[in-house]
């Protein structure tokens, strides 16, 4: 893993912010900044061109904002994992960003080492949320089908869901439950289908809300 750095794209309308992020990230041995963009539309184009592993995305940008950019990346089936890095932590931006497919959501004033850790974490397949961000989404997710849907899960699916909520990647879940990664992927697909959820982020928060965390 160490010989292949995590390729990162920076999307923020403030050049000073991009420069600061680049300066710090370029000293990380396992992270490579492959490009920058000043708004969401340019970010989508650059993500398609460069195929980064992780996109650091601002939410509030002129023109195409981060949420719209996320929706476009999902529509294009771009595999990049998107980490929202912003100073705006409020429900009207948090919930749409996570619903649009963000893998994590952190503050712009995050400690630099913590940001590097966040990049590594989302790249590994984890869901990364500040506590108040999770709270905002849980408040909004008052009842995505209610608790009744959880009763359709098998015992193994409930175990997998609990590990998703703990931020485990498919590989880590496979190791913990002594399963193949292919089997774990099948369980994850079944969980999303049964609970009518869009992605792992919603699954993790559903599990927290319904007491399935370990």
Write up what this structure looks like.
- It is a single chain.
- With 214 residues, the chain is an alpha/beta fold.
- Helices cover 50% and strands 14% of the residues.
- It is built from ten helices and six strands; from the N terminus they run βαβαβαβαβαβααααα.
- The protein has helices at 15-25, 40-50, 66-75, 91-99, 112-123, 131-140, 155-165, 170-177, 181-195, 200-209, and strands at 6-11, 31-37, 54-57, 81-86, 104-107, 128-129.
- It has a six-stranded parallel β-sheet, sandwiched between helices.
- Helix 4 links the parallel strand 4 and strand 5 (104-107).
- The protein is globular, with a radius of gyration of 17 Å.
- The relative contact order is 0.11.
Keywords:
214 residues; alpha/beta; 6 strands; 50% helix
Summarize the SSE layout with pairings.
Elements: E1 6-11, H1 15-25, E2 31-37, H2 40-50, E3 54-57, H3 66-75, E4 81-86, H4 91-99, E5 104-107, H5 112-123, E6 128-129, H6 131-140, H7 155-165, H8 170-177, H9 181-195, H10 200-209
Parallel strand pairs: 1-2, 1-3, 3-4, 4-5, 5-6
Helix pairs in contact: 2-3, 4-6, 7-9, 7-10, 8-9
């Amino acid at each position: 893993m160490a010989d292949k750095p995590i390729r990162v794209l920076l999307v923020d309308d403030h050049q000073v912010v991009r420069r600061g992020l680049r300066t710090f990230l370029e000293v990380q041995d396992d992270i490579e900044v492959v490009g920058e963009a000043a708004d969401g539309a340019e970010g989508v184009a650059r993500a398609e061109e460069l195929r980064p592993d992780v996109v650091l995305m601002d939410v509030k940008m002129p023109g195409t904002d981060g949420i719209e950019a996320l929706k476009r990346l999902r529509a294009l089936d771009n595999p990049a994992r998107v980490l929202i890095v912003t100073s705006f932590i409020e429900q009207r931006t948090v919930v749409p960003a996570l619903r649009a497919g963000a893998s994590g959501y952190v503050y712009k004033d995050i400690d630099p080492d913590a940001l590097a850790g966040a990049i590594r974490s989302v790249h590994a397949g984890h869901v990364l949320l500040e506590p108040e961000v999770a709270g905002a989404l849980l408040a909004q997710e008052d009842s995505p089908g209610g608790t009744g849907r959880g009763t359709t899960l098998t015992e193994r699916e409930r175990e997998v869901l609990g590990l998703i909520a703990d931020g485990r990647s498919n590989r880590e879940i496979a190791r913990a439950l002594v399963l193949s990664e292919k089997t774990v992927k099948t369980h994850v697909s079944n969980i999303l289908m049964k609970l009518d959820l869009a992605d792992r982020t919603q699954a993790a928060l559903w599990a927290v809300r319904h007491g399935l965390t370990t």
